[in-house]
Design goal:
With 373 residues, the chain is α/β, with parallel strands linked by helices. The protein has 2 domains: 243 residues, Aldolase class I (TIM Barrel), CATH 3.20.20.70; 92 residues, Up-down Bundle (Chorismate Mutase Domain, subunit A), CATH 1.20.59.10. The chain has 13 helices and 8 strands. The protein has an 8-stranded parallel beta barrel with strand order 1-2-3-4-5-6-7-8, surrounded by 4 helices. The N and C termini lie far apart (61 Å). It binds phosphoenolpyruvate and manganese (II) ion. Phosphoenolpyruvate binds next to α4. Manganese (II) ion binds next to loops.
Length: 373
């Protein structure tokens, strides 16, 4: 006899998705960047325990950029880290970056593991780690890769799933900036937003500690995460951040964490408010019409590029006309500024448009090209 599927209770998800309006609060992963000594870890845990984090994080093996820094206490730390968290009824997650570390983590009964940004970036390692975790049902947090490559992040999820690991959550910790930047890692919010659209089943947590690299900015980014509907946070917390052996500048004290959580504003949609719904609908209808006009204008603009391409081809002119491009940039910047447009936004749009025009003209120059737009 087939069991009645409605009677089969599925295991509760280790990583729930947040529904603050239904009483499911954002998931909180908190703890030090690294577990340093039993005494130091205990001092942090004593501050953390009253805040009841859903999961305590503790780095045992630290992937440092330079080799002369503290690289974690290593496997022997797992004994006291496990013991001290368990004694307080807290669940523990550690970072694993190699199969041997996964074996140690399993041996010591950690509750979850996370893959750091320097591991998610490497498909071989992700696969190796998945192979060792296969069949254990271990909950896994996958941080974004250091480079802003959504497909690579997605690939890490898929690799874990191939090994039968289904208790997964994603951690957005920002992307390496390639130029001086106001944050340690650039948030590039559009990437996690797009990943969540593609995998709405997976919880997405935000790691403001590694994004900002600055404890003073952490509360602001924790709030942004709420406003962008994240399902939780991973936050670095240390009893005495200025003495920390890694990431000293970005860790909160337990008191600061309490204040940060207490200062969060939860915002909710209000389906009862008919008047507001009508106002939103009206504004969105205007946006829809403008978007339609913009699409039409873009299409017309590209048709003109095509006609320009035809002329350039007929008279054997080079496709790129640097003087003309300079002039476009200069005039559009001036006009855009007077219309209140953000320069970096405008630049991205101009670059995209120019790139598309050039590509279309390059296609026209190819011998087999007979395409019209
Ligand atoms: C960490 O969580 O301490 C860490 C090393 O993070 P990331 O992989 O985001 O750099
Ligand atoms: Mn850290």
């Amino acid at each position: 006899m087939n069991p009645d599927p409605t009677l089969v209770k599925s295991e509760p998800a280790f990583f729930p998705k947040a529904h603050p309006d239904q009483g499911v609060r954002p998931f909180l992963v908190a703890g030090p960047c690294s577990a340093e000594t039993p005494e130091r870890f205990e001092a942090t845990l004593d501050g953390l325990a009253p805040l009841a984090p859903d999961l305590v994080r503790a780095g045992i093996w630290k992937p440092r950029t330079r080799p002369d820094r503290f690289e974690g206490v290593g496997a022997e730390g797992l004994v006291w880290v496990r013991e001290l968290t368990q004694r307080r009824g807290l669940r523990l997650a550690v970072e694993v970056a190699q199969p041997s570390q996964v074996e140690q983590a399993l041996l010591h009964g950690v509750d979850a593991v996370w893959l750091g940004a320097r591991t998610t970036v490497n498909p071989f390692l992700v696969d190796e780690i998945g192979r060792v975790l296969a069949g254990t049902g271990m909950p896994v947090l996958l941080k974004n890769p250091i480079n802003p490559d959504l497909e690579l992040w997605l690939g890490a999820i898929e690799r874990m799933e191939r090994w039968g690991l289904t208790q997964l959550a994603l951690v957005h910790r920002g992307f390496s900036p390639f130029e001086p930047s106001p944050y340690r890692n650039m948030p590039q919010w559009e990437i996690p937003i797009e990943l969540r659209r593609r995998r709405p089943d997976l919880p997405m947590y935000c790691d403001p500690s590694h994004i900002t690299g600055n404890a003073r900015l952490v509360p602001e980014f924790a709030q942004i995460a709420l406003d962008l509907c994240y399902d939780g946070w991973m936050l670095e917390v240390h009893h005495s951040p200025s003495d920390a052996w890694s990431d000293a500048g970005q860790q909160l004290t337990p008191d600061q964490l309490r204040d940060t959580l207490g200062g969060m504003t939860f915002r909710f949609n209000d389906p009862e408010n008919q008047e507001l719904a009508a106002q939103l609908q009206d504004l969105r209808a205007q946006v829809d019409r403008l978007d339609h006009d913009l699409l039409e204008l873009m299409s017309q603009r590209l048709k003109l590029s095509h006609r320009l391409g035809t002329l350039k081809k007929e008279y054997d002119l080079p496709i790129l006309q640097p003087k003309r491009w300079e002039q476009i940039l200069e005039t559009r910047h001036r006009e855009g500024a007077s219309m209140g447009l953000n320069l970096s936004f405008l630049n991205k749009w101009l670059q995209l448009m120019h790139q598309e025009s050039i590509q279309r003209q390059l296609d026209m120059y190819r011998p087999d090209s007979s395409k019209t737009p």
